[in-house]
Write the structure tokens for this entry.
Amino acid sequence: MAEHFLRQHVVVSDHDRTVAAAEVTTSGISGGTARAFLRAESGHITPGRRASLVDAVLDLPEVRDCTRLQAVLPLGDCETLQRLQERCGNVITRPAGSSAILEADLPARPLVGMPVVP
């Protein structure tokens, strides 16, 4: 049986201007790996917009069903990297040209009806 992939486009805007975007690919298999290509417009971007993109990607239900994340982001994008490190575990990064490749564990999704313990 062929595996089916879901591709999603996530956008963060600031005053009707797209400032950051991501292409996200997930498989229909629970516990799989989500893949994301994150990018931001060049020039000044309001602080927090890159972090908002990370949150939007990681909060997608299909990504929350995954256990691993592979992401490509611009080398030197500290805000995006910092937010990924805050939200993911066992983060490993390596440079690849003008990009950074990140591999990380995604937090376990709480069971329905179970209280979340901080």
Remarks:
- Residues 5-105 form a domain with the Aminopeptidase fold (CATH 3.40.630.30).
- The mean pLDDT is 90.
- The chain is about 20% helix and 45% strand.
